[in-house]
């Protein structure tokens, strides 16, 4: 299953990239995050493996995230006209997923965030979930992006909702 979602954020590219990459902010916008802890490497950098636990209602997911791309490496001074890439793969019981995030300038103080997502399922249960509820995955990705936008622009924290 593959899909793409996008959102515009009313902040400059460099600021959006920095907020998105900062692990201290993840619980504020990543709804359902229980644990995100590096097992090896430095959070957010290529090659880093992290344990990820998400809770969505009664459903709990645990997997291993591997960062496969981060460009540019240094997010402190991003040249105008640049494209920022964050890519990761997550493996869990019965599922493999990849997210390819691109941030570009949409205007002087606006950033376009495009997220390409791919899921592969193994095992009867996960294949059934993927087949019967493909829209749920897209909806959840878009919810995470909307939550990030509210956090970045307005300081809203999903833990209060």
Quick one: CATH superfamily?
START domain
- Number of extended strands: 7
Question: How would you state the average pLDDT, rounded?
Answer: 91
Number of domains: 1
Largest sheet: 7 strands, antiparallel
CATH architecture: 2-Layer Sandwich
CATH class: Alpha Beta
Distance between the termini: 30 Å
Structural class: alpha+beta
Percent in helix: 25-40%
Multimeric state: single chain
- Based on CA atoms alone, the radius of gyration comes out at 16 Å
The sequence of SSEs as H and E is EHHEEEEEEHH
What is the beta-strand fraction? Answer: 35-45%
**Which regions contain 5 or more consecutive residues with pLDDT less than 50?**
none
Number of helices, counting only DSSP H or I runs of 4 residues or more:
4
By CATH, the topology is Alpha-D-Glucose-1,6-Bisphosphate, Chain A, domain 4
Explained architecture:
The protein is an alpha+beta fold and 161 residues long. The chain has a single domain (2-31, 78-160), classed as Alpha-D-Glucose-1,6-Bisphosphate, Chain A, domain 4, CATH 3.30.530. It is 27% helix and 44% strand. The protein contains four helices and seven strands. The two termini are 30 Å apart. The model has no long low-confidence stretch (mean pLDDT 91).
Which features characterize this protein?
single chain; 161 residues; alpha+beta; Alpha-D-Glucose-1,6-Bisphosphate, Chain A, domain 4
Short note summarizing the structure:
With about 160 residues, the chain is of the alpha+beta class. The chain has helices spanning about 15-20, 25-30, 125-130, 135-155; strands at about 1-10, 35-40, 50-55, 60-70, 85-90, 95-105, 110-120. The protein contains four helices and seven strands, in the order E-H-H-E-E-E-E-E-E-H-H.
């Amino acid at each position: 299953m593959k899909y793409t979602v996008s959102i515009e954020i009313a902040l400059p590219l460099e600021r959006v990239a920095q907020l998105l990459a900062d692990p201290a902010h993840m619980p504020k916008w990543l709804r359902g995050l229980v644990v995100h802890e590096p097992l090896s490497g430095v959070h957010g950098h290529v090659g880093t493996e992290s344990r990820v636990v998400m809770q969505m209602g009664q459903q709990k997911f645990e997997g291993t995230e591997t960062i496969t791309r981060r460009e540019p490496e240094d997010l402190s001074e991003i040249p105008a006209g640049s494209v920022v890439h964050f890519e990761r793969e997550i493996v869990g019981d019965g599922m493999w997923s990849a997210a390819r995030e691109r941030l570009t300038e949409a205007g002087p103080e606006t950033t376009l965030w495009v997220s390409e997502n791919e899921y592969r399922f193994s095992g009867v249960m996960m294949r059934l979930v993927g087949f019967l509820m493909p829209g749920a995955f897209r909806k959840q990705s878009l919810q995470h992006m909307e939550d990030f936008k509210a956090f970045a622009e307005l300081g809203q924290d999903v833990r209060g909702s």
